[in-house]
Amino acid sequence: GVEVGPQPQGVARADVLDKMRKIVKHGLDFVQLFNEGKEFPPCTIEVFKIMEKVDYPRNKNGEIIAIIHPKLQDQDWQPLKNGDPQFLTLDGEVIPYQGDCTVYPTFINEAAYYEKKQAFVKTEKIKLSAKHLRLSVS
Prior knowledge:
Blueprint lengths: L13 H22 L7 E12 L11 E3 L16 E5 L4 E3 L23 E11 L8
Antiparallel strand pairs: 1-5, 2-3, 3-4
GO molecular function: hydrolase activity, acting on carbon-nitrogen (but not peptide) bonds, in linear amides
Protein name: ACY2 Aspartoacylase
């Protein structure tokens, strides 16, 4: 599957559809070249690996008591470091990120995830390496 976004639920955006078409075309081009016997050299790529889902701060009744801090809003895939603003209480208190490593939040404040108790997802940036790749014909 390919997920391209973000975009609001029930909305069809031309720019997102164009990105999806390009990604699918690249995937199909790769399959065709691989099937034709093209050799792909070794490579390394940076990816984001999901670490955990982060819920909104809640009171004892399970009610949300803080919102995403304005400096975190719309900063998907950007580094979040120890001490950076993470949430803002309704009283104006900043709740900073407290972690031992830099993380890269994504799906920040997505409406579709409120019911899943997810304010954002913490990811870590890692490198994946692949050996050369070529179809071996027997």
